[in-house]
Design a protein that fits this description.
single chain, 34% helix, alpha+beta, seven-stranded mixed beta sheet
Length: 166
């Protein structure tokens, strides 16, 4: 029931961006779906997506983009998944928001000490959308290794790697 109502409300907001009245109810329900784990380098947040249909995942991705934009970037904010998105460099965060807007669900984000000690890695459900233009400060590569990951977008700042991967 909870998942179904979340999806209906997410679709309602996606169709009418100006309709903000139901947002608070969605935010509280949706925000609690993220699971927090402690890791040696920091925190990891995972989103339970395995039982979602493609349509539900795309609607939820758009809802995530809305939640991120609704939060003011505050380095002293609560330690949650949204605060980690604001620690991504601006160009990489814009790539993330573009992918979420296009329906590509973020299924995890964390600072775990890999690939660099203070870097942050976000994992996307699907491959990055084809035909897009990448900001000059990021690099995109295709790995296609079934034991690792399919592709990544990396931005390096102050000797730290920040990454989106599929």
């Amino acid at each position: 029931m909870r998942s179904a109502s979340l999806t209906v409300m997410a679709l309602r907001i996606h169709r009418n961006h100006d309709e903000m009245a139901p947002w608070k109810a969605i935010d509280m329900t949706h925000h609690s779906a993220w699971r927090r784990f402690s890791a040696p380098g920091g925190d990891q947040f995972d989103f339970p997506w395995a039982s979602m249909s493609d349509e539900e995942a795309a609607s939820t991705a758009r809802l995530h983009a809305h939640e991120i934009r609704a939060r003011q970037p505050d380095p002293h904010a609560a330690k949650d998944w949204i605060s980690l998105t604001y620690r991504l460099p601006a160009d990489l965060r814009q790539v993330l928001l573009d992918e979420l807007d296009r329906g590509n669900l973020m299924i995890g984000i964390g600072q775990t000490g890999w690939p660099t000690s203070r870097g942050i890695v976000a994992t996307m459900r699907d491959r990055f959308h084809e035909g897009r233009t990448w900001p000059q400060s990021v690099s995109w590569s295709v790995l296609d290794d079934p034991r690792q990951w399919r592709e990544d977008v990396v931005q390096r700042v102050d000797d730290q790697d920040f990454m989106l991967m599929t």
